[in-house]
Design a protein that fits this description.
Layout lengths: L1 H27 L2 E4 L2 E5 H4 L4 E5 L4 E6 L2 E6 L4 E4 L2 E4 L5 E4 L2 E5 H7 L4 E3 L4 E3 L6 H6 L7 H8 L22 E2 L4 E2 L3 E3 L1 H4 L8 E3 L4 E6 L9 H14 L4 H7 L2 E7 L3 E8 L1 E2 L8 E2 L4 E4 L6 H4 L8 E7 L2 E2 L6 H11 L5
Helix pairs in contact: 5-10
The structure holds zinc ion (ZN).
Length: 338
């Protein structure tokens, strides 16, 4: 009699152990562990989450319920529903063409869908909203709307006029990288002031710092940069992760009115400036440079200029405008010589 009870207990325990092992291996599929942190492999998790990974752009779009997330390799910013937020470097990475998001980041963002356990995370499938996904970065703005948004901004360089030199305008061809110009440029010969490494760059408006490249790593060689440009040629566009490298040392601002700025090619950023800081139009962002350009890798001091991308809720401001309208907007809103 006693023997039978023991046997039953042993069999039951074995079954439980087997079931537990099976369950936990299943739950662990789709995870990797890196330096003690759990990451979701979004390629495998795409059954539970609506995620789209672009191997060319090295960019991931993830939709959880009504929230749309956009990540790009080595970009320390996440776009959530057209707003920009700082992202810790270790919270997103790409390996062997697969995208990984840290489980703790997702748990913090989406507590009703992600629960972290000691060694793994439990996921609940989310009904993603197609409407939300489509609302991201597809809206274009009219001339009147753009004028309204831009009236909240001031020029980034003291005494400079709006630089409307044709190749400095957004939409201009950038054949060297098989793409087009996304933002505005200010060069010495067309901005009405000297633009060099002593030129101070200011914040343009009231907002929050979401990115400051204090630890910027330039291309190590001309060859390395050319390798990226060769890939642009191969895919006939500038992939998102390469575009970010070509912008060099950057500061990104999320303005209170919904606009965003990416200050690019900076030589230095202000040492006191940090992610999370609140800024105004008078805050020193950094100094003009040529980081990310051919002038930087060739060390010939060429290409010194300020480049700024301006976006309205994730969309480049000029997408719905004619070239003439863009010029008008710049002259009326970003001119110091009025
Ligand atoms: Zn530019």
């Amino acid at each position: 009699m006693k023997k039978r009870v023991w046997l039953t207990v042993v069999v039951l325990m074995a079954c439980t152990a087997f079931l537990f092992m099976k369950l936990s291996t299943e739950e662990k599929a789709g995870y990797v562990y890196r330096e003690g942190k759990a990451y979701l492999d979004m390629t495998i998790q795409s059954a539970a989450y609506d995620s789209t990974y672009s191997p060319v752009d090295r960019q991931l779009q993830l939709v959880v319920a009504d929230n749309v997330y956009m990540f790009i390799e080595n970009v320390p910013v996440v776009q959530i529903n057209n707003e920009l937020f700082p992202l810790a470097e270790q919270d997103f990475f790409i390996q062997n063409n697969r995208a990984f998001i840290s489980a703790s980041f997702l748990e913090k963002q989406e507590p009703s869908y992600v629960k972290l356990k000691a060694a793994y995370a439990i996921l609940k499938s989310s009904q993603s909203s197609e409407e939300a996904a489509q609302a991201v970065s597809t809206k274009q703005f009219t001339r009147e709307e753009v004028m309204q948004y831009m009236s909240g901004l001031t020029p980034p360089l003291e005494n400079a006029k709006a630089d409307t030199f044709p190749s400095h305008l957004p939409g201009a061809d950038r054949t060297y990288r098989h793409g087009f110009h996304e933002g505005l440029d200010w060069y010495t010969y067309s901005a009405g002031v000297v633009v060099n490494k002593e030129t101070e760059v200011y914040g343009m408006g009231k907002g929050k710092v979401v990115r400051v490249d204090h630890n910027y790593k330039p291309y190590e060689s001309v060859e390395q940069r050319n390798k990226d440009l060769a890939y642009c040629k191969e895919v006939q566009k500038t992939p998102a992760y390469i575009l970010d490298k070509l912008r060099g040392r950057q500061v990104w601002i999320q303005y209170d009115n919904g606009m965003q700025a990416r200050f690019a090619h900076l030589d230095q950023v202000d040492e006191e400036l940090n992610v999370g800081d609140t800024i105004t139009k008078d805050t020193l962002i950094g100094y003009v440079g040529n980081s990310g350009t051919s002038g930087e890798v060739q060390k010939d001091n060429t290409e010194l200029h300020l480049h700024v991308d301006l976006l309205i809720n994730g969309t480049l401001f000029w997408k719905g405008l004619s070239q003439e309208d863009v010029k008008d907007v710049l002259i009326s809103q970003l001119n110091n010589n009025e």
